[in-house]
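Session log. Operator J.P. requested a structure for one protein chain; no other inputs attached. Running the standard single-chain path with C-alpha cell output.
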Amino acid sequence: MARHGGRRGWYGKLVGAAMGVTVLAAGASVWTAQAGSADDAPPKAGRPAAPPAAVKPVSVVIAHDSEAGPRGVNLTIDDGPDPVWTPRVLDVLRTYGVKATFCMVGTQAQAHPGLVKRVVAEGHRLCNHSVSHDTAMDKAPEDYQKQQILDAERMITKASGGVRPVYYRAPGGAFTPYSRKLAASRGMRPLGWNVDTKDFERPGTAAIVATVERELPNGPTLLFHDAGGDRSQTVEALRRLLPRLKEQGRVYGYPVR
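Structure written below.
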C-alpha cells in the first residue's frame, strides 16, 4: 500500500501482537534465510531428512512491467487477507476469470490461513508485504528489516500450505537497497506499482475507476486493497473495471519476475 498517514496506520493495533510473534520467531529468521522451505519441520525419527528445495534468486530491480506484455494489466491487492473483504474480491475476480497478486501482511496471513489457501487454489500469486506493515521500514535497522521480511515469508508460506510468496512489496513503498537484495535472494522480486487507485482513502467508486482509466497509460501495475477498513468501493470498482478493460483489449497478467 502507499504511504497513507502515520507510521503504521490501522496496523498500529497489530504491532504489539506482531512483535510478540516476532520474539517467538526471531530464532526462526536465521534458518528461514537458509532453508529451502520457510516452514521446514524436523524429520521424524527413522526417516531421512529431505533436502531443502532450492530458492532461485531473482532481480533486485523493482518490478512494474507485466508478463502479459504491452497490453498487460497487473492487479495487485494489498494488506489482507481480510475475512470480510478478501472473499468478496476473490468472488469478483472469479466471475471475470481474472488473476491477481495478493500482497499479504504476515500477521493477517497467520490469522486467516484458509483465505491464503483459497487465494492459491484459485490461481493467484502471493506477495510478502512484511510482518506488521511498518511504512517506516526504510528508516529502521537492517536487522529489523530482515525480521519483517523473513518472518512474513515464513508466516505466509505456512498459512498457504507450503506455497511461497514470489514478490516482496515494502509497506508504503519503503524499500531499501538491503531489503530489495534480501527479498531477491529469497526468490521474491521487489514489486512496485504504476497506478495508486487511492481506494484506501475511500474516494468513491467512480473516482477509483476514473483514476485507473486516467493513469493506466503510466504503466500496468494497479494498486488496490482488500483490508484496512470498508473496501466496498474497491469491490464495486473492480466489478466495473474488469470487464471494461477486457473490452478495451487489455490482458490480465502478473508482474514480471
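Operator note: The helical segments are 12-32, 85-95, 106-111, 113-121, 142-160, 177-185, 205-215, 232-247.
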